[in-house]
Amino acid sequence: MSLRSQLLKGILEGCILSIIQKETVYGYELSQKLQQYGLNDVSEGSIYPILLRLQKEGLIKGEMKASPSGPKRKYYHLTASGENALCEIQDEWINIQNPVDKLLNRSFYDER
Amino acid sequence: MNAKELIKLNNKKRKGLTKENEEYYDKMLVYIRTNVSVSEQQAEELLMELLDHLIDAQAEGKGAAEIFGENIKNYCDEMIKQLPKEPLKSTAFFIGFLLLQLASLMAIVSGIGGIVVHYFKDSSQTVYVGTALVTLGIVAVIISLDVFLFLKWIQKSVYKITNKIKDFFLLFVLIFVSLAGMVFLPKLIPPFGYAIEAGGFLYLTVGAATLIVLKWLNSKYQITK
């Protein structure tokens, strides 16, 4: 696995939780949303192992429901512990976002 | 929707795939379905989800390898790791049911065999309960082992190009060894346990009665369907 995808893997979980919190989505919708936000490097299929893990940890739940386009789909929604987990991830992200930004940003070298 | 309905729907929807996509998807399907430890319901729900995704993506001109990656085995292993396992109790019950079915079939066959032989020569019809049970055990172990090896072989064929001649040879050896084991190993067991005279008829009646009860149970509770 490349360094980039390793970096992304942990963060992706938070992003997926965040999308599911806003609205219930099914797999294909979720992958489209991630792409729309600009995460083009995420291969579409990689969301399924993550969705399964999040279900196993009880953070999300899937339910078969009729979709607007007709056939039944498995729609995901957040559980109470999923909401908590998302809050924690958001807090952690704020804590590391600034320092990492400063360290990794090219301007860091320019300022020296 | 339960697993059986999902499988039916899956068969129907799969026809909408292009040839390349179906080839790829079939490999995932075989690999996940032959993994007996995962919950059937969860596995079928996942397979349906993946199929729906593939159909949607196909409409936009994308291919399966682009979506799920080039390495089918790794991708499926990653998902199987997260899938809930089939409860041990239900697996044990299912295997027990099949073994009982096998035992009653064996009893019918050896019952008929015993009766036929008895008409031609005056062979003893005595059945030793202990010996009969150990024989059943040996046959059950050999068949379980064969099924296990066969499933592993199918899984392997998903991600590895296999040599047909070598496979055929191995299959031949496996069948030969299994049959030899089933026929000759029981002959090594000394007769022990409770002795029953007129074993042929007893085998036949008990076997047939058990089989009928099992068939009835199966049609009522759909255990193996």
UniProtKB/TrEMBL annotation, chain A:
Residues 16-86 form the Transcription regulator PadR N-terminal domain. The lineage of its organism: Bacteria, Bacillati, Bacillota, Bacilli, Bacillales. It comes from Priestia megaterium (Bacillus megaterium). This is PadR family transcriptional regulator. InterPro entries: Metal_resp_DNA-bind_regulator, Tscrpt_reg_PadR_N, WH-like_DNA-bd_sf, WH_DNA-bd_sf. Pfam families: PadR. Gene3D superfamilies: Winged helix-like DNA-binding domain superfamily/Winged helix DNA-binding domain (1.10.10.10). PANTHER family: DNA-BINDING PROTEIN YIZB-RELATED, PADR-FAMILY TRANSCRIPTIONAL REGULATOR. It comes from the Bacteria.
